[in-house]
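Researcher: Sequence recovery benchmark, item below. Answer with residues only.
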């Protein structure tokens, strides 16, 4: 089945070997650098307000290979809405409860696509992403809090999920899984000896309005084509000694 047909049918698709090993190695070092720089944050809590101030992060989400995939789903005018490393540590990495992303996002209309970039090999043993195929055709469900589970976010969709239908997203570093904002998805805890790190990248067409206040949204960046209806953060300039060093840093200075 063609990947676009699979996305239409199942609500997700996997693109293999999208990014090269050298860039993925830099992403691996970047998340480790972030954890050292922000010791109060867990590996599962590196996101939104950090993105637009970080030249490597912006360089990564601006990569043409990723934007070319996003363009297949949302067209040529592309902005970043949000991005989030979820680096589940060995043995103690937390689960993510079943949910639909679109139930939480301040977007109008809900025209958005998520690219989930594997930094580590992602398997059932270390808590890989799991999806329920076809649920992207459902309406967005209400959400409820669930205390005491030690999940990354203690919020889940307020419906019963048939986990027997779940599909594990087994990914190698550099692979990209793409999913719809309405698909039901989550992940189990990481009880293995191996970290499981992925970077979520939420791209929107620039005709989709970010409705949260204040503006601009902390991680809103114009990446390709017409800037559209939103205001955006300025792209950061690389400062040696302040930012994560990377191969393309001179071009961002």
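Model:
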């Amino acid at each position: 089945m063609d990947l676009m047909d699979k996305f239409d049918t199942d609500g997700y698709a996997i693109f293999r070997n999208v990014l090269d090993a050298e860039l993925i190695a830099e992403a691996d070092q970047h998340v480790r650098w972030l954890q050292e720089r922000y010791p109060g944050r867990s590996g599962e809590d590196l996101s939104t307000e950090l993105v637009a101030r970080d030249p490597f992060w912006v360089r990564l989400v601006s990569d043409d290979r990723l934007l070319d995939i996003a363009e297949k789903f949302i067209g040529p005018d592309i902005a970043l809405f949000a991005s989030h490393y979820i680096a589940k540590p060995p043995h103690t990495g937390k689960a993510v409860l079943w949910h639909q992303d679109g139930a939480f996002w301040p977007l109008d209309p809900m025209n958005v696509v998520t690219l989930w970039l594997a930094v580590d090999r992602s398997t059932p043993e270390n808590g890989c992403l799991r999806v329920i195929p076809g649920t992207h055709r459902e309406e967005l469900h209400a959400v409820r809090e669930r205390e005491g589970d030690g999940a990354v976010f203690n919020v889940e969709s307020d419906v019963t999920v048939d986990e027997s239908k779940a599909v594990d997203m087994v990914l190698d570093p550099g692979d990209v899984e793409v999913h719809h904002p309405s698909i039901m998805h989550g992940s189990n805890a990481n009880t293995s000896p191996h970290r499981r790190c992925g970077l979520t990248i939420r791209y929107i067409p620039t005709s989709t309005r970010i409705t949260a206040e204040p503006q601009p949204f902390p991680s809103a960046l114009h990446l390709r084509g017409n800037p559209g209806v939103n205001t955006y953060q300025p792209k950061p300039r690389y400062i040696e000694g302040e930012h994560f060093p990377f191969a393309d840093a001179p071009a961002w200075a």
